[in-house]
Design goal:
The chain is 27% helix and 14% strand. It is of the alpha/beta class and 175 residues long. The strands form 2 sheets. A 4-stranded mixed β-sheet has the order 3-2-1-4, with no helix packed on it. Helix 3 packs across helix 4. It holds the Pfam family DNA_binding_1.
Length: 175
């Protein structure tokens, strides 16, 4: 009997336009595993994104379009997020922040039962592989300041303005 060999997960990607620039969507075994913006911090090399194939992304693209049109405030998508258990717990908390609201890193740490871990929460937040859908842009500094965002502070400010009912100039509809 030959021992089973682990298989490499199948990866596909596609690029879609958005009001915040091109978004690269990555699927692992047909399930969304990443959404990267151009010039995003912690963006892996493109050769790790797999083959170009829009097939797995129809529902993701539809829901993103509804979000950018102002018709969707939460996403309902299966995701395959690779990270440490702590990172995944932070990303789960991010999904609980309502549209148009913000939380501080300290508040998230308290929600996780780790009140002294705001810095660790910030680091995990920065490693979120599915920006916008897992709304890491909704996390702000203790003073209310916009701090750190893998997609850039300009995008963070525009996303927050959009969600709080901005005029549309902050995020023109391109979908």
């Amino acid at each position: 009997m030959t021992p089973a060999t682990p298989t490499t997960p199948a990866k596909q990607h596609t690029v879609v336009d958005s009001p915040y620039g091109p978004l690269t969507l990555v699927a692992t075994d047909g399930v969304l595993s990443a959404l990267y913006m151009t010039d995003q911090r912690h963006r892996p090399p493109e050769e790790t994104f797999g083959v170009p194939d829009p097939e797995p992304f129809g529902e993701v693209i539809r829901q993103l379009g509804e979000y950018f049109a102002g018709d969707r405030t939460a996403f309902d998508l299966p995701m395959n997020l690779a990270g440490t258990p702590f990172q995944r717990s932070v990303w789960t908390e991010l999904l609980k922040i309502p549209y148009g609201e913000t939380r501080t890193y300290g508040e998230l740490a308290e929600e996780l039962g780790k009140p002294g871990a705001s810095r660790a929460v910030g680091l995990a937040n920065g490693k979120n592989p599915v920006g916008i859908i897992v709304p890491c842009h909704r996390v702000i500094g203790a003073s209310g300041s916009l701090t750190g965002y893998g997609g850039g502070l300009d995008r963070k400010q525009r996303l927050l303005a959009f969600e709080s009912g901005g005029t549309g100039e902050e995020a023109p509809a391109l979908f």
